[in-house]
Amino acid sequence: MYRREIDGLRAIAVLAIVLYHFDTPVLGGGFVGVDIFFVISGFLIGRILWKEYRKTGRISLARFYQRRIKRLAPAYFAMAIVTSAFAWAILLPYEFREFGKMLIAATFYFSNILFFRQTGYFDTAGEEKALLHTWSLSVEEQFYIFLPLLILLVARSKQLLLALLVVLWFASFFANILLTPDMQPATFFLFPFRAWELLSGVLLAIWGYERRCDWNYGKPISWLGIGLIVGSIVLIKPDTGFPGYQVVFPVLGTVLLLLNGRQINPVNATLSSRGFVFFGLISYSLYLWHWPVLVLSKYWRETYQSATETVFWVLICVVLGVFSWRFIERPTQQMDTSISKVFGLTIIASLGISLFGFLIYKNQGIPQRFDAETQIHIKASGDFLQDFSRCEVATDGVFAGHNVCALGPSGQDPRVLVWGDSHLCAFAEGIAKAADQAGTAGLLIWNAGCPPLFGINKNETYATPKEDTACNEFNAQMPARLSALPNIERLLLVGRWSYYASGHGIGDDLENSVTLSSTSNKEMPQNEVFITAASNTLNEMSSEFSKVFLLRQVPEIPTYDSRKFARQLAHGQVTEQSTISMETATLRDAIGGDFFVQAAQSENVTLLDPWPQICDKENCHAIHNMRGLYFDNNHLTNTGARELSTLFAPVFERPAR
Description:
By secondary structure, the chain is of the alpha/beta class. The protein folds into 2 domains: 4-369, no CATH class; 385-556 and 582-615 and 635-652, SGNH hydrolase (Rossmann fold). 60% of the residues lie in helices and 8% in strands. It has helices at residues 4-21, 33-56, 61-90, 93-107, 111-118, 134-153, 158-189, 191-210, 219-235, 248-259, 266-271, 274-281, 283-301, 307-334, 339-362, 372-381, 422-438, 465-483, 497-502, 526-544, 562-570, 582-599, 611-614, 638-643, 649-652; strands at 391-393, 403-407, 416-420, 442-446, 456-460, 490-494, 514-518, 547-551, 579-581, 605-608, 619-621, 623-624, 627-628. Strands 1-2-4-3-6-8-10 form a 7-stranded mixed beta sheet, with helices on both faces. It has a two-stranded antiparallel ribbon with strand order 5-7. It has a two-stranded antiparallel sheet with strand order 9-11. It is elongated and about 95 Å long. It starts with a helix and ends in a 5-residue tail after the last helix.
């Protein structure tokens, strides 16, 4: 029997999800719409399968999957094909390569596993994954495989089957509750931890069938149910350990509304109204289309410029949802198609889409789609991941528990220590090349966002309190550690000095700020804290090592980001600059750089200056000789680091013994 209020529930679920994804105020927990869908799916599929099982003693897998495929596959295939076409035109090779991987995973319903291994649902990285939303479809499809097979395996005993379903419900429920604090991505994405939500619907359907339930238990149940759902949508936040115990509220609310769905009351009347039913009918198609539209439009536009533009894209999603439901979903469900034809066409479409995804992935996102200038920035955007094959977490020694990278030939005692922040990581390949060419062994140790200086504590907006504490503790222990390295003769310090001296980023990362304070608790302006710490560090290290080297920070190019620049070139809307005037760059560098120039006058300190290889008399350049030197406004690419490797030759010259 068709129940209109269930479509009304679907409407709440899909509208909560869509409006949440489009950053609608107040709906901070709109993502719980997925949990509402899970319970509804469990209820409807459980009712279908249990009814067939009780009447015939078995279930027909072929007919069941025929219905599921006709219901779900055509609209998915249409979305996948259209999204692929727009992704071809819009996405840069790296993102397009990842899209190819997602396309395969989504088509064969294991995208939840892929995304679990890649990123969290609430991470900003997820905002560029055009098929991220298919994770929930994969969970449901895995449920469609699990439940029928379970029924078939224990079909001879109804009591055993019921007992097994209840046991599985408890196992899944408590696994979710207990493991979410430590394994949140797993409990969010993976079917075993979500199964209890679907089984809640299944067990409700079975109970209703066996009790000949009329689904009418009084107004308070409906009011409580809708209250739990609305409260969840408004009050639950992404950063509060979801799913965990919080998911109980939307699940229980959905169960209560299903339980009392036939009772005449204002809640059910509203859910059964024409508007709610309409959005419920298009809910699957709307869900399918909204996320690719959001991701690709934001990727193309970089960000929405106004509320009006946001509303425009929401309306585009609704139009696509209506079109997909009216001309794809409904007609294919009503077609009288044989089982063999349904399976045959599905296999062909799945293989075709997956082959396309494989070709995208295999061909590195097909960079040939773009012109030569754009490809320079594209290559730069993918040229930042360093080779960490010679890095490991030390199990003993002075750096026990920290990641340490070996430099130069193996089997030698390290003579050089390189210490720094993420700028050291960016320079790593150039430094490693210099060490190899000189035949001198060394150690490299770095900590992103952590200035390699003594006598300071730092508090950074970009870092977590835990990361700040780890940095401060590491730096406090560093003097003793350096004294315990008898073979180290030379030290190289690498850092984003102007950031620490000024207390803030520049251009594209202007909102990032860092506060330095002296461990002596003496109140000083930020640049004085920095200069005092740098002076003390150099004085102490000059007496500890035969030679101390300082790397002058590369000039910052405020608005350059290789990814943004490549996108803008590809889409014909360049607003960024890949150069900066020498005058402007020098002003920024002078905040901390002048001190290092003066410090290098001492006999034991040498300043290594990369500027002559990046700048001419007038400008500094992110691109040199058709090669990308910069990844973003302050980090070099691996190519840039290798081109500057000769700068480090003095560091690794074999010291006189």
